[in-house]
TrEMBL record:
Protein name: M20/M25/M40 family metallo-hydrolase
Domain Peptidase M28: 109-319
Keyword check for Oxidoreductase: no
PROSITE patterns attached to this UniProt entry: EF_HAND_1, PROKAR_LIPOPROTEIN
GO molecular function, one term: metalloexopeptidase activity
Organism: Planobacterium oryzisoli
Keywords: Signal
């Protein structure tokens, strides 16, 4: 069979091709298809609403966003890690210190958990920050629909997809942690705190998939089906291959590795929450849509999100996580953070 024909068949019938990635046929397909543009939109219009007041670290608006997320997890039947009494990993305001004369109150990482069946002690962490930058001096709200409301709602849909598989008797072999971190906008503080105070030992953390802005397109890719993937081959020669194979068997997006170039002046590999894990030698991949005209502006609103593309990118992360959670051996660590 020609390669091009095989790819077409795989895209059209995920369940028939899924066995090549350790996918579980119908259970995977149903879970994958449960990630919809409509559900992502429903959640994002709430997470990125004015009611959340820009979700500044330690703010009442951020607490409201967290309460909404937890209520949704409880509706899904998704719980927190068994080591925790609830979904909250509270970070004291003193940890954040004062930045540009601004002090922050206590704030929370929010952690949901789907326990594995065969290797529950090994964990795949899927992360996104749910904080943003609050309001400006005129009281205008920075809703942060893309940054990182898009990653926040993607995590919620991924959790629900894994939970649906679990209800069908196909829970992942490894545990899946859904980690919503606070304090990213003030220096990756929530993910840094987590890796200093891990719920599961870092030695048992297999990989981190981090989502930070996947709902828009940058000027370079207007009208294109793409996503930037950053750092996937830094620490593991297998993670990039797994993600590429998952992409070929789903929507076959353009995977752009521009920001992997060590000479790239943006140095984005070091600028989102995945790096808190990579610093500890945990393989990580960062999914990103690029810098667009509404980045860190009050105009980053939910009505500007490309929801069909957000769905495809979320399904790609889910597919990659599914393979990482269900393959027989954990991925190798055979690289370094320097090139």
């Amino acid at each position: 069979m020609k390669k091009s024909l095989l790819l077409v068949l795989c895209v059209g019938a995920l369940s028939s091709c899924a066995v090549n990635l350790g996918y579980e046929g119908r259970a995977f397909k149903k879970s994958y298809e449960s990630i919809t543009a409509d559900d992502l939109k429903k959640h994002l219009y709430i997470i990125a609403s004015d009611e959340m007041e820009g979700r500044n670290t330690g703010s009442e608006g951020l607490r409201k966003a967290g309460q909404y997320m937890i209520a949704e997890y409880q509706k899904m039947g998704v719980s927190h890690p068994p080591q925790m009494q609830n979904f909250y990993q509270t970070i004291p305001g003193s940890y954040f210190g004062s930045r540009r004369g601004v002090s922050y109150g206590d704030s929370d990482n929010i952690i949901a958990f789907i326990e594995g069946t065969e290797k529950p002690e090994e964990v795949i962490v899927i992360s996104a920050h749910y904080d943003h930058v609050g309001k400006n001096k005129d009281g205008e709200v920075f809703n942060g629909a893309d940054d990182d409301g898009s990653g926040t709602v993607a995590l919620m849909e991924i959790a629900e997809a894994f939970q649906k598989a679990k209800k069908k008797g196909k829970a992942p072999k490894r545990s899946v942690m859904i980690l919503h971190v606070t304090g990213e906008e003030i220096g990756l503080q929530g993910s840094k705190y987590y890796t200093e105070n891990p719920i599961v030992p870092l030695s048992q953390t297999v990989a981190n998939l981090n989502i930070d802005m996947i709902g828009r397109s940058d000027p370079e890719h207007a009208g294109k089906q793409y996503v930037y993937v950053i750092g996937s081959d830094m620490l593991s020669s297998e993670l990039k291959k797994i993600n590429e194979t998952a992409n070929q068997k789903s929507h076959n997006l353009i995977l752009n590795y521009k920001y992997d170039d060590p000479k790239d002046p943006m140095r984005l590999y070091y600028r989102s929450d995945h790096y808190s894990f990579a610093k500890h030698n945990i393989p990580a991949a960062f999914f990103f849509d690029g810098i667009h005209e509404d980045y860190h502006k009050t105009t980053d609103d939910a009505d500007k999100i490309d929801y069909p593309l957000l769905q495809k990118r979320t399904q790609l992360v889910f597919s990659t996580a599914w393979e990482l959670a269900n393959r027989s051996e954990r991925i190798v660590v055979d690289g370094s953070n320097t090139r």
